[in-house]
Structures are given as C-alpha cells and as structure tokens.
Design a protein that fits this description.
It contains eleven helices and 13 strands. The protein has 311 residues and is of the alpha/beta class. It has three domains: 80 residues, Winged helix-like DNA-binding domain superfamily/Winged helix DNA-binding domain (Arc Repressor Mutant, subunit A); 106 residues, D-Maltodextrin-Binding Protein, domain 2, CATH 3.40.190; 96 residues, Periplasmic binding protein-like II (D-Maltodextrin-Binding Protein, domain 2). α8 links the parallel β8 and β9. α2 crosses α3, α4 crosses α6 and α6 runs antiparallel to α11. Belongs to the LysR transcriptional regulatory family.
C-alpha cells in the first residue's frame, strides 16, 4: 500500500512566506488580515505536514532551520503557480495595453520574471515597458504616459504613490577597493556615477561633502551596466544598493574604509490614478511580489535581517 503524502496547506504556506519576507509573523498577520495566534497555528500545522521543524529560536526571535530554508524556496514557487493559475482563469478576457516604467536597477533583476508571468496569465494584454531615471518615470506617470512606475524616493510624487520598501544604500567597489585610493591619503576619492541628473550621484556627493572628504568624478556612464563594469575594474567607488549587484562588485564597510555611513532609500510605486484598470491591478500584484523577493534575496530587506523572524 502506497504511503499517503499530505498536501501542504496553501494558506499556511502564504503566512510562512509572508512572515519571512516581512521579518515578523506579527507583520504577516497584519498583512494577511489574520490574528497572530492564527498565523502561529498555521506555522505549527505546516511543521506537522512537513514532519520537520521549520524554525528555531534565535535570541528573542526565530530563524529558519535548513529544512525551513528549503521549504521557503518551494513555497514561493508553489504560491507563484497558484496565483498565476487563478489570475489566468479570472482574467482570461483582459485585453488592451499596460505601460510599465522601471529604474534600471530592476531591469535585469525582476523585469523578465514580471513580464513572463503576466504574459502567460494575460496573453491578450500588451505591455510597453520603459527603463528610465527617477525624474522621467515620475513625469511620465504624472502625464499619463505610464500606468505604473517603480522608482527611488527622490521626493517626487505622481497622482498616487506608495512606499514599497526601504533599501539600504552602500558603497561598492572591486574586491580590493580602488588601488589608487586609500582612506587617510592625500588623493581624492575616485567616484564612479551615472550621468546627471542622477539621484544616487547627488546623494554620494552630498554625503562625501558633509564628511569633508575630497572626491573626484573618475568615471561617468550613461548606463548602469557601464557603471558596474567601471566598479568591477577598480576605476571608482559607487554609491548604490545591492539590487542587481554583479559578482565582481563588493560592499565596502564604511568604518574600515573611512567612508560616510549611509541611510536607507525608499522604493516607491507610482500610479497616475488611485483606481487602476483590472489589467494594471494584476500587473501591480505581480510587480509587488517580485520586488519583495528581489530585496529579500539581495540581503537588503528592512527593518530586520532577512533570516531573522519574530512572532
């Protein structure tokens, strides 16, 4: 007689993933509209179905076990397929256009995934995507030329704006930093940046000036790929987030290298109107999920470390 394999509870999986991505089961309960005790019960049920412990105590909170990390990867895929199937069934008749704008940081990190999922669910809807800088994304949303725009928080606001995340800024360079510059030396810090206007270029200059550090523009690029190449080659230090960071570029510890400490940067979702069309709503749901996964997988989720969970 074949052993009966239990089916994992989809609601419990959703609470499990939300708790990890939000850093707290209390936040997950708020997001999902359930009580904290109900979410805890779901976690216990999931452990019973899996037959192994998924979390362990870590200080005042919880951390994932090895089995928990394994399940998390499968849970995301299961939820993706579940949501994609339901979206396709409920929205099969959607037609028309959706115009999406993104910061270049997210072009390679999430755009292929977002477009692929949406196209499979809504083959009759055509998507026009645009990679651009902050000011252009907000302007085109305000003018009605974009239905959705994902941009860094530079203080600009479109018709309806929502903060999706707070992402830490960091100094980035090649493995050994920049060979021609050392903290405490007489040479100005070589800075690599995008062409102006660029929000992160402005932030880098203001933080260096505030600390009284001499700096020079060693490399200017019209594209993010060119900027990453310059950083990997050791031509300059870059101020950016870790989203989309290539393997040849590393995070510099500010204290070790004598660099200014950096704040977080808000990630905003802009829409020209509060009540979007059904097609825009469906694309927005996929985009939100992809952004959440990108910031967590990049190790930059806020306000807690990605592997730490609290009840």
């Amino acid at each position: 007689m074949m052993m009966q394999i239990p089916n994992l509870d989809m609601d419990a999986l959703r609470s499990f993933v939300a708790g990890f991505e939000l850093g707290s089961f209390a936040r997950a309960s708020d997001r999902l509209g359930r009580s904290t005790s109900a979410v805890s019960a779901q976690l216990k049920k999931l452990e019973e179905q899996a037959g192994v412990a998924l979390v362990r105590k870590a200080g005042r909170g919880l951390a994932l076990t090895d089995a928990g990390e394994t399940l998390l990867s499968y849970a995301r895929r299961l939820l993706d397929l579940n949501d994609e199937a339901l979206t396709a069934l409920r929205g099969v008749e959607l037609e028309g256009w959706v115009r999406l704008g993104l910061q270049e940081d997210f072009g390679e990190a999430i755009l292929p995934h977002v477009l692929g999922r949406f196209a499979r669910a809504h083959p009759k809807v055509r998507i026009e995507s645009r990679i651009a800088r902050n000011s252009e994304l907000v302007d085109k949303t305000l003018s009605g030329h974009l239905d959705l725009a994902l941009a860094w928080d530079g203080g600009e606001r479109a018709g309806h704006a929502e903060r999706l995340a707070e992402v830490p800024l960091c100094w980035l360079a090649a493995q050994d930093g920049v060979a021609s510059w050392r903290a405490g030396g007489t040479e100005p810090l070589p800075l690599a940046a995008l062409e102006a206007p660029c929000l992160l270029r402005t932030l880098a200059a203001s933080h260096l000036d505030r600390q009284g550090m001499a700096w020079r523009l060693a490399f200017v690029s019209p594209s993010l790929s060119g900027l990453w190449a310059a950083a990997a080659a050791g031509l300059g230090i870059v101020l950016r987030t870790q989203i989309g960071r290539p393997s040849g570029v590393h995070v510099l510890d500010p204290a070790t290298h004598g660099l200014p400490q950096l704040p977080t940067l808000g990630l905003m979702l802009h829409r020209p109107e509060r009540e979007p069309s059904p097609a825009v709503r469906h694309l927005e749901a996929i985009l939100r999920q992809a952004v959440g996964e990108a910031v967590v997988q990049g190790g930059v989720s806020v306000p807690v470390p990605a592997r730490a969970l609290t009840r």
